[in-house]
Amino acid sequence: MATPEDKKGYTFAPYSGRVEAGKIRELALAIGDENPIYTDETKAKEEGFDAIPILPSFMEVIDMWAGPSFEDLMEQLEIDMKKLLHGEQEYEYFAPVYAGDMIHAQTKVTDVKAKRNGMAIYTLETVYRNQNNEKVMTARQVLVKMP
Q1: What is the pLDDT of residues 60-115, one digit of tens each?
Q2: How far apart are CA 124 and CA 37, in angstroms?
Q3: CATH for 97
Q4: Where would you find the membrane-spanning parts of this chain (predicted)?
Q5: What's the whole-model pTM score?
Q6: How far, in Å, CA of 90 to CA of 113, rounded?
Q7: Whole-number CA gyration radius for the chain
């Protein structure tokens, strides 16, 4: 019989997506960020950027449009979404990401802690690399499967 710990080390299929200036603009408008560096390349360059930069949480856009659905991830982990809690999320940034960049991502289960009561705590890590294979960001999330 499979246990939650059996998923430690599980690696999901890789995916790729292009960073589009229009999607950066949409996210900035959606969250009410009026900083012109997210909508105007000239303003971004005046502020020292190479092009329009992404907002801090923009990789969620790449995940949503290019990656597997959350439902698919949970199916692969054999987690009933009715018993799932999102524990935490963190991002670690290594290099700038700009409109036009091609991002390649892959998610791996880096840890699973099973509790005696049937609860399991999963840590997933997604590494994002740009078109030059440069690591630009890592996202970590903790998921809690309730008994």
Answers
A1: 999 999 999 989 999 999 999 999 999 999 999 999 999 999 999 999 999 999 99
A2: 31
A3: 3.10.129.10
A4: none
A5: 0.92
A6: 19
A7: 17
